[in-house]
Amino acid sequence: MLPMKDRSLAFHIIPVHSILDLARTFAYFDEIETPYNKYYNKHGRPNTTVATVFRIHHFTFTVASGCNTSRPYPTMAPFLASLDMYRKVPVDLLEGTKRGSIMSTLAIMSMATLFFLETRAFFSSSLSTNLALDSNTDQNVRVNFNITMMDLRCDYATIDVVSVLGTQQNVTQHVQKYPIDQYGVRQRYQQRNLKQHDVQQFDATVEETIEDLHADGEDAISLDDTTLKVALESNTYVFVDFFANWCSHCRDLAPTWETLAEVMYEVAENKVEDNLDKHNLKHDYTDADYDAAVAVELPVFIGKVDCVDHPALCQNYMVRAYPTLKMFVDGEEVGDYRGHRTVVEMAHFIEEMEKEHKGKDRAVETSGAKDVASDRTIHTREHQEYAERLTATRHKVKHSWDEDEHPGCQISGFLLVDRAPGNFHIQAQSKNHDLAAHMTNVSHIINHLSFGKPFSKYFIKEGLKNTPAGFLDTTRPFDGNVYVTHNEHEAHHHYLKVITTEFEPQRDTKKQYGKKKGFYKPPEPQRAYQILQSSQLSLYRNDIVPEAKFTYDLSPIAVSYSKKYRAWYDYFTSLMAIIGGTFTVVGMVESSLYAVSKKRR
What we know:
alpha+beta; Acid-sensing ion channels like fold; eight-stranded mixed sheet; five-stranded antiparallel sheet; 15 helices; disordered N terminus
């Protein structure tokens, strides 16, 4: 038996398991100690009896349970023994209810739904937008364009680039121009030689001044509305110079044009002399008869129209630049002369026109005009060699081109501009003409305008998903826009804010585009340029030629798009929160319902 303690009652040791278990279930009992040391043998193994001492208020008793075991009794600190978050309650003490089944079903369904949504969100990605200073180190940026000038001929349509430093340059190397008809349909390929070539603006071999040539009368007849109509009705071939008295190019051309008229009269006089010799009529005519015979034999009527004195007449014939040399055959306009403005070249042009109109076998009226022009203007061996070389390399030009059916021009190509504010503009300009400002119309259709590499649209449109919706439209907001000016001295100006945008290509970009479409994989990250645009109608002074102007400015802030994916530990944390949170919330609801129903009872 155990010794008695002060004011305590000791019981005999009772080896019964049930009494020990029963004692531990009551709140009145408080476990004091388990005197293991007193019941271990010298070999470290427990005796056959293990005792536990309990105290009931001021009484202490010991309950022992007999156990035959050869294993050492496990030792555990009191705080570890009490640390149990998963204590079990016997199933016999639980009671199932219909309400609990319903709430459990709802909890399971909620968990499954949230689990599916969370899993789908984990495997999907989100688009992240970042703003930073533009770190692009490229010196130039490419401008791609395709613009249709609705009422400007390709002869006069030019593109100039002006930088922020004030430097200006004419760009023709990477620009192609296609004439279009009045319906906007491209008819034929022209201007294949992208670099513009100058033409001789006047014949330097003509040494006489215009006053010296007019001393014996004007052979190039000045025309107005009435006389031009009479000349077209009376002559098969009419060659007219539409000029302005303030035009410097026109003043330089005036002696050459007068010389050409004298050459045509000399050709006619040679024919009259040949006819007189043939019929032995040398002295049987008067001066009036001789002049009439020369007028009949005149191969081409050479005239001129001052557009300052007759603006309506020039406007009817769509004269937009000075001087404009127009050829008429049987009263119909067949086109403008664009070759070298020398007497020999224009005489050759007249001969070719007759051959095309009548045929080579019947072209006799202008025969000899080129020879007379050569004798009149070529005085040195150098000039002779130049004329022969020019004749050997000359290509026959088809002059059936009707300019009235091709008033517009489609301009396409690209520019390499500095990464600095600047502008490029399409204007009517010619090295060989002075433009009429009131006749210049720069109405245009922007078929395409973008910045950056041209193949970037394929990666944006078809291959990449790393950009927001509508991103392709922001890189080309002008496409398809029409800008029409209805009054004189007006033009549309466009302002572009260009924003560098970087985005990551997909992993299969190289496979998709490198093999299927023949494009190589671009460097990472891929770069495009978004455009913020605005347009306004600008007014010009009467003496300034309007122009379609595009002013651009590159933003110092760059935008970058990237895909973000959730971390795996974030996904598992969310799953645990879903399971635990759903279980807890549904449990709270069920407990509340149970408490309410219990009160009603």
